[in-house]
Amino acid sequence: MDKLLLSVKNLEVVFPLRTGAVTAIRDVSFELNQGERIGIVGESGAGKSITAFAILNLISKPGYLASGSIEFDGIDLAEADEDLMRQIRGNRISMIFQDPMMTLNPVLTIGTQMEETILAHRDTSRDDARKIAIEKLKAVQIPSAETRLDQYPHELSGGMRQRVVIAIALLTDPQLIVADEPTTALDVTIQAEILELLLDLCNEFDVGLILITHDLGVVSQVTQRILVMYAGRIIEQGSTSSIIENPMHPYTKGLIGALPEMTTPGEKLNQIPGVMPSLQDIPSGCPFHNRCRYIQDVCRSRLPDLAKREERLIACHFPIQYD
Amino acid sequence: MSAQTLEVRSSAWQRFRKSLVYHSFIHNRTAMVSAAVVAFFVITSLLAPVLAPYDPWDQTQFDIMDSELPPVGSNGADQRFVLGTDAMGRDMLSTILYGTGISIMIGVFATILQATIGISIGLVSGYFGGRLDSFLMRVADIQLSFTTLMVAIVILALFQATVGLRFYENYAIFVIVLVIGIAEWPQYARTVRACVLAEKKKEYVDAARVIGLKPRAIIYRHILPNTISPLLVISTVQVANAIITEAALSFLGLGMPITKPSLGSLIRNGFDYIFSGSWWITAFPALILVVLILAINLLGDWMRDVLNPKLYDK
Description:
The complex is a heterodimer.
Chain A: E1 4-17, E2 20-33, E3 37-41, H1 48-55, E4 64-72, E5 75-76, H2 82-88, E6 93-96, H3 100-103, H4 110-121, H5 126-139, H6 145-148, H7 158-170, E7 176-180, H8 188-205, E8 208-213, H9 216-222, E9 225-230, E10 233-239, H10 240-245, H11 250-257, H12 297-301, E11 307-309, E12 312-314
Parallel strand pairs in A: 3-8, 3-9, 6-7, 7-8
Antiparallel strand pairs in A: 1-2, 1-4, 4-5, 9-10, 10-12, 11-12
Chain B: H1 2-10, H2 12-18, H3 20-26, H4 29-46, H5 48-51, H6 92-128, H7 130-145, H8 148-163, H9 165-183, H10 185-199, H11 203-211, H12 215-226, H13 228-251, H14 263-271, H15 280-307
């Protein structure tokens, strides 16, 4: 069961811009076992999506993978050529995007888009592809799947569309699904349904999941482990329950404290003061130091390593202690 | 299950009948009349061999003694020739039927050629971008800086001079289609490229890449169908333009030969006789040309309005 599926080591993605090179993520390392579900959380611009795209070798130009290795089931994706990547994308690793409105092609029927995905990776007839498509639509609990296949995306509701997107991600029985904020564009009631569905499907088909989100509530529902990212680095990593209960990094603590559930009704929400530094001028020392409540001199000058502390990895000079 | 899916699939026509395009067409008199006019010309010219009383391409069928007979209704008209005859004694009605067919054929095939070249180049240019894009678009600019007429005149004149008139008469239609097709491809290339630039930023293209599709499949199956509405609009306009260009070339003596005349060559042919009072040789083909072009352009206008969602509230 605990077979290593994905191992990312020292990943660094650089965007050479006119004003100088910007390192979007640096020194990102993590591992994922077969069937394991992890969450990557952080503010906008922390490098969550870049990490996901880097795994699929789809960083948009002019960005490139400067260093690091991505080992997926024995294959180094960082070194893989375009042909090999195409065999892996959509086949062994699928991706779910944020807005189902945008990810389905408006002029093709659901069926065409699903069949196409299967035919790109499997040597089957169109009829068989259609059968698989119907089967997966049923798996994501879409009623009267046969008729849905001949409909266009605009004929479906938002939640329905995201179900179709998930069905497309499942078509080729992938080992890993990367979901980039899959519920942000949906309203709250649908969100819960979709998350539950995603969780059930991952369990049923033994699929690994990387869930990218800024919503800690979402992560805590679905994942087993959390990576917290800040300014392109992983700053805390550990099991979901322990991080939610006892966040050791001041930033993680701030994030959890900022949840509306954590405030008394009528009071102002707890914000983390300040904004995340721009990737072009990350402060010296700990990148979080100018927003941190527990700042000491050493934080300004020395970057904390991502070190193991109890069952956790944490990059902070003075992690919060719990008894 | 299969019966159900079959039923859904066979209802494409019903779906079209429910669509906005159909609705707007039914409620737009201009569009319906224009479509009827275009359809009328297309059908009559397709049926020309059946409908025409004479074969205008067969020189043994007409008699010089019948030359310049006026249309029925005027003095000295002959009942055999409803629209009169030209200087060779050829029946105008038959000649116009065949000529309309040639004009429409040139228009359609030249447009297909333009579209094929232009769309392929535009898709590649827009999708891959970078230096390839700059190169292809500069080529398009250069091509556009030579007007179609100028390119056509040079090529056709050279062709006519080198291969001789007899050979030219047989192959003129291919050369004209080729010249108009090649001269106008940048229209398509630019439009398609602009659409591709807008489309390729959309997430469904990312999604298609994530699915593992090859660039070819992404370009043709995903992006191209999303650019189809502006292409339909240009296509109608370009058919009309190609017909006009051919008519202009014919008027300069570089279009279809008078033995197999298009509408343009008929106008040109009759123009020599207009001051001797034989107005009908020029007037009827000219009228047909104007009506045909007007109908096609009105159809194009309607299509542009209906396919542009920003104009719906009008």
